[in-house]
Amino acid sequence: MSARFTGKVALVTGGGSGIGRATALAFAREGAIVVVAGRGAEPLDRTVRLIEDEGGRASAVTADVSSSEDTARLVSTTVERHGGLHVAFNNAGVLESGPIADMDEAAWDRQLSVNVTGVFLCMRHEIAHMRANGGGVIVNTASNLGAHLRVPFLGAYAASKAAVSALTRAAAKECIGDGVRINAISPGPIETSMSLRPGETEADRAERLKSALPIGRPGTLAEAAAAVLWLASPEAGFTVGHDLVLDGGASA
Ligand SMILES: NC(=O)c1ccc[n+]([C@@H]2O[C@H](COP(=O)([O-])OP(=O)(O)OC[C@H]3O[C@@H](n4cnc5c(N)ncnc54)[C@H](OP(=O)(O)O)[C@@H]3O)[C@@H](O)[C@H]2O)c1
Predict the structure, then answer these.
(1) What is the pLDDT of residues 222-241, one digit of tens each?
(2) Is residue 165 in contact with ligand 1, taking CB distance under 6 Å?
(3) Is 127 within 8 Å of 140 (Cβ atoms)?
(4) Is domain 9-245 given the CATH code 2.40.50.140 in the classification?
(5) Does residue 158's CB lie within 6 angstroms of at least one atom of ligand 1?
(6) 94: CA distance to ligand 1 center in Å?
(7) CA-CA distance, 98 to 104, in Å (whole number)?
(8) Is the CB of 64 under 6 A from ligand 1?
(9) Radius of gyration for the alpha carbons in the chain, expressed in angstroms and rounded
(10) Can you tell me the distance from the alpha carbon of 64 to that of 61, in angstroms, rounded to the nearest whole number?
(11) Distance 14 CA to ligand 1 centre (A)
């Protein structure tokens, strides 16, 4: 098995569930020391245990990515505990759905503060550390909903993720000269609870996606993690400011 991240410290926000947990496990399997972050301690501890059970190294930091104080502490704690920060996967996100005309301002603010301000704050602290310490790699989680596709009732989410796509590409141009390589993934429906509609079961989702997606199924956690690891790996060394769509053809 290849170990593309041996000797690297990788930070994963939203690492207590879904795409973040799967990617944290994948980084650890390829040699990285992984720090998982999120608001809830218990899911993060579970990810750490899963990694340790496989013989990997990991630790958890509870942090709200929409807080400037928390994101500064997240990066400084990672560096203090593990001696550096080489790879960051800014993946934490929330989804607020509903018609734009009826959306309350608190939901709109929550959508933007976690998905957009959260990525901005994480990148700000990560870039500062990486620039001063020989460079690094950042991957942000956007979505196919946003820069690539729009659907009714997910306008706020799409606006937040379009902002992540644009912020990623601008930051990539700014930072590559300092050795910080930045890209994004833009997934379509992946097999996590976020892609379930209200009241929908996994079987219902499978049935819906048979006709709603050209590929006829949701993306797997392994497929999402593999895309992140490739973007973060030296094999993608010439890939800068790319927004990698993995959506089974939905926005093709
Ligand atoms: N699943 C899909 O179909 C899909 C498609 C396109 C894009 N995405 C994006 O992929 C990312 C991961 O989503 P997922 O599908 O894996 O769903 P998920 O399991 O709900 O993961 C979201 C993670 O973000 C964390 N989080 C939420 N708010 C946070 C905050 N303020 N500070 C820190 N962490 C926070 C959550 O942990 P806590 O609640 O404990 O904080 C959770 O671990 C999200 O950015 C999502 O928008 C998902």
Answers:
(1) 999 999 999 999 999 999 99
(2) no
(3) no
(4) no
(5) no
(6) 5
(7) 10
(8) yes
(9) 17
(10) 10
(11) 5
